[in-house]
Give the backbone structure.
Amino acid sequence: MMSYSTIQFAKQVRISALEMVYQAKASHIASALSIADIVSVLYENILNIEPSNPRAPERDRFILSKGHACVAVYAALKQIGILTKDQLETYGEDFSWLMNHISHKVPGVEFSTGSLGHGLPVGVGKALAAKQGRHSWHVFVLLSDGEMDEGSNWEALMFAAHHKLSNITAIIDYNKLQSLTSIAETLGLEPLADKLRAFGAHVYEVDGHDHQQLIKVLSEKDSIGKPRVVVAHTTKGKGVSFMENEVKWHYKNPSHEELKRAILEIEGNDAQCIY
C-alpha cells in the first residue's frame, strides 16, 4: 500500500509543476507529470539528503538527465524544504535560478542538464569517484526513454558494468512518447530490457506510478556487483486525464481553465482549487 504521505507528496509535486508551467507560459508539463511519482518516492523515501545542508559530503547524488522536466524536481525540493513557494514562483523569469531546464545553481541540484544523453555519463563518473574514495553515497540518474537514442548512455553503461559500479541506479521514464511522436515510430528501443542486460546492467521492470514497487527496487543498493537500471513503465501526463498519452502536451502550455481542471482532477476528494 502507498503511504498517505507519499500520495500527498506526489499530488503536491504535480500541482506545483502545473502552477509553475502555467505561470511561466512554459512547456514540458506532460514530461514532469510522467516522473512525478518517481521523483516523489526518491525524495520522500529513498535519497539520503539533508534539507538544511544540501551539499553535505555524504549525501546521495541525484541527477535529472531529462532536464526539461525540471519542474517536478523543483516542486520536490520545495516539499522537503530546500526551496520555498516564493522561489517556485520565479520559475522561468529573467535572472531566476529556476530555469526552464534544470540548473546546478539551484540548491539541491547536482548537475545542469538539457542536452540529452549527459546525465548518465556524469552519474557514472560520480559513482566511480565514490567507489575509489570508498564513500557510501549512492548515485541515482533519471532518464527519458527518448534519450536512450543517445549512444553516450550505452557507452556509460558499458563503463559502469566494466568497473562493477553497483553504487549507481539509472531509472528510465518509459512513457513511450517523445517530443513529436512515439518512441516506436522515432527509433524503437525494444527489446529494451534485454539490451540493457547485454550491456551489463541488472535490470528491473516496474510500474513507474506504483509507489510500493518503486520503493522496493530503489531501496536495494550495492549488493549485486552491477549497475542497476529500473525500467519504469509510465504514462506521459499521468494524473491529468486530458494530458495523458497526448504528445501535444510535450510543448503545450495549459490555459487558465485547463489549469483549474487539472488541479481539481489531481486533488480529487481534497479539491480546494483557488484558481
Notes: Residues 4-270 form a domain with the Rossmann fold fold (CATH 3.40.50.970). Residues 4-24 form the longest helix (21 residues).
